[in-house]
Amino acid sequence: MSGDGAYDTRACHTAIKIKGAIALVPPREGAAFWERGHPRNLAVGCQKLYGSNKYWKERYGYHKRSLSETAMYRVKQLLGGRLSLRK
């Protein structure tokens, strides 16, 4: 599951884990480490070591999220008001 920093909460990480997915969520600026062995700690470590999330985003393909968002935006623009999740 890929999401922006707004999803960097314990509740979101727990919900993602319960669903059996892997969280690809960049830590918020100035984030602290969580309990030992938590997968999020790798992203926090990269942030602290390099001063930003840039290395982590490149290493784990986080940019694919924005590419998919752009693609969906284009589809919605092309289809106009005809695309809806509701009947």
TrEMBL record:
Organism: Vibrio crassostreae
Any GO molecular function: transposase activity
InterPro entries reported for this sequence: Tn903_transposase, Transposase_11
Residues annotated as signal peptide: none
Domain Transposase IS4-like, first and last residues per copy: 2-86
Gene Ontology biological-process entries: DNA transposition
Name used for this protein in its record: Transposase
The organism's taxonomic lineage, starting at the top: Bacteria, Pseudomonadati, Pseudomonadota, Gammaproteobacteria, Vibrionales
